[in-house]
Amino acid sequence: MEAEWNNSTSKIVILICLIQNSLISPLPLAVSQVEHWLENLHDRRRLLEIAWQNRKSHLEQCLALALLASDLKGLEEMLVVGKEALARCCDHLGNSPASAELLLHEHKKLFPEAKVNGVIAFSPLLL
User: Fold this and answer.
1) Is the pTM of this model over 0.70?
2) What is the residue range of 46's domain?
3) Could you tell me which of 114, 113, 110 has the C-alpha nearest to residue 89?
């Protein structure tokens, strides 16, 4: 783009020099040529603006996906820890009604924490 800008700028400078040296007599032709170059520059600027907006949008989507992947990985790690905790405490179903009630109480305590952390949707073991 810079090379095109320098090329267009050099064309304008050459045209001005030719006009000053009276080598070009039809001034309206020179004016229309400069207007044409300016329109081309404006069109290129618009195209670059559109390309930049598209790239920015794409990068924002990539960032959102990366954040989502990070959150998902954190939830998966929490789920693994929860499963391991359940596996450790639930090796037995209780030797008596009292111990079974205690295990049930510990199991129910996991629900509020799972709902807060969003794990409830991913964990069929907690249901």
Assistant:
1) no
2) 2-121
3) 110
